[in-house]
Amino acid sequence: MSLLRRHVLLATAVAAAIIALCLYWPIRQFPLSFDDLLHIRLVKGVNYATVWLPTTNSAFFRPGLLLPVLFTRSLFAYYPAPFLYGLNLLLHALNVALLVALAWRLWRRWPRALAAGLLLACYPFSYQVVAAFGNNVYLVLLLLVLLALHTYLRALDKGGWWWPVTAVLFLVGLFNHELMVLFGFYAALSHWAYTGHMEIRVWHWRRSPYLFFLFAAAIYTLLYQFLPLAPSPHTANDLPMLTLLYLGQALVYPLAWLGARLLPDAAPLIITLSLLVCIIWTGLVVTRQPENRLALLLGWGWWGITAVLLFVTLPAYYILHGPRLLYLGSVGVCLLWAVLLDALFSWRRAGKLLWAAALGTMVLIGASFARGRVVALGNLGAPVAVMQAEMASRPLPEGVLLVNLPAWSAPVRQSFPVGAEHVALMGEHVFAEELVWENLNQVRPVRAVAAPELGQEPGYPYGLHVQSPDLGNPAEWASAGATVFINRVTEQGVTTEVSGRFLPADTAVPPLATWGETGLIAGTAVACQGEITAELTWRPAPQTGATTSVFVQALADDGRLLGQADGPPLQLRPDWLALSPGWLITDYRHIQTDGPAVPTTLLIGLYDYVTGERTPGVETNHQPLADNALRLPIQPCP
């Protein structure tokens, strides 16, 4: 290869890889969630020797799946999320660069190489692979496939030790994921595109070496059926037409995206017409440029064989909720579109402008969709970020109570005609303990519950992760107390706030005021930048009515009401949070104030939110409180 060509190849690969890194750069701050936690759970029972053995703990034989987790544990003694997500970023960028190099090796045309790399970097349905470390297996799988194709094509030219290197990569790929059985098909299609002619010599493997990999894959597939694995959770495809539409959409995604804007609620028509456009376009290119027929066969065939295997082996719901499954097949999509777009580049100056416009549009469509999913994933992980910040300074025995922890949400409009565009934080196979323990690197008591009265209807679907049916007895599961995190799903996304803590403590301290058997032990209030933050410590009554609530009002010097924050302590129903004698509640309140008036006094008391009647209150000296409310001075911002 000449020096100029080397520079062009390097510049093209680096440019595409940098765009991939920029697109997914925010994931480095994501918490461990979903399948990340499952794989950490699985790896705790194996080591570098036993990881290679099939086990009934899993329905799949994928030793390579757990190796990055094992390596991380050996390196750090825990599982730092930035490092694991950094691996995903690096692998995706490497795959993009390798695809650029593969397209260059096949055709020596930089427009095709650049287009293939950019399209893979921004392929819209890749977000679930890159933005979740638990899907790292698909990144490694594609890396091994592309490396093996490079060594395979090199072996066609040079022979020698390149063949055993290819065989080793193929074997390692089989240990990583069973989809590596498709390598023989990918090798055949690449072989034909590279040599410029199609030849199948069944009894002459030197002419058709890809047949060796097809035969080896068939043997592996047969042996795989006898491995001691757990039963597969997947069933037959129950919605074949919907699956076909989704797989077709993944191939013609730029046209499908445009069609969803022009013809809402017409998915079959949009995808069928888009496929017809691609078929006609392919026919025109083959007619005018017959030398590209095998290049187009590579794109169509790569995607087709992958889609067929997914369609036959997996149910519709799994494919529609798992766009990560499309990552391997997306190479065929990117190569197909790279060749189709190159037909435009071959025109005169107007063709080059049209090529740039079409490629830029496809990149923007994919990048905007993927970045939107990344933003949604980042928002869904907000509860973990709040928990990490709050619990960093809390004593280790103290527990965590997660209220309305989001499992998944779908907070944006339908961008494509078919598919579930949701993002997931938790699953039924993952427990809240793992979410807390692995992200804090601490073992604490954990409970995740649902409080329906705190729920809202944001206008889009979402789900909650409910690990426990109720709060239970805190003295049993959180003997040292717990911090309460309230999660809400709103139109703006997921919000999380620390509502306070409940702790075993000395209840002999005289209260500032009492309302019946409920006493306020301590209270502070500070006003900073238009917000009043109050910290109130309560000694709850043994029995408190379900409709009992607290009013917290901020007043100016002249007695004007500037803001208030009403609700039961910790924002949980008093009869639901049944604490034993000897426990205290530290309740946090935040009041927003507007205007030039300066808040000076905080009014605190109990009332029945159904009748509006205030509970009679007395001071420490048993004198009745004016208006049945304790007046607490508000301190200025330090």
Provide a compact summary of the structure.
Strands 1, 4, 6, 7, 8, 9, 10, 13, 15 and 17 form a ten-stranded mixed β-sheet that branches. The chain has a four-stranded antiparallel β-sheet with strand order 12-11-14-16, with no helix packed on it. A three-stranded antiparallel β-sheet has the order 3-2-5, with helices on one face. It is built from 20 helices and 17 strands.
Protein model, in words:
It is a single chain. A hairpin with a 4-residue loop joins β11 (548-556) and β12. By secondary structure, the protein is α+β, with helices and mostly antiparallel strands. The chain starts with a helix and ends with a strand. The protein has three domains: 3-379, no CATH class; 382-501, no CATH class; 513-636, Immunoglobulin-like. Helices cover 46% and strands 16% of the residues. The chain is elongated and about 100 Å long. It has 20 helices and 17 strands. α12 crosses α13 (267-288), α14 packs antiparallel against α16 (330-345) and α18 crosses α19. Strands 1, 4, 6, 7, 8, 9, 10, 13, 15 and 17 form a ten-stranded mixed β-sheet that branches.
| Structural class assignment | alpha+beta
The major pleated sheet works out as: 10 strands, mixed
The value of Rg in angstroms is 30 Å
Overall 3D geometry? elongated
Number of domains: 3
How far apart are the termini?
68 Å
What is the total tally of β strands? 17
Strand content: 15-25%
SS field, number of helical segments: 20
Helical residues, percent = 40-55%
Contiguous runs where pLDDT drops below 50 for at least 5 residues: none
In round numbers, the mean pLDDT is: 92
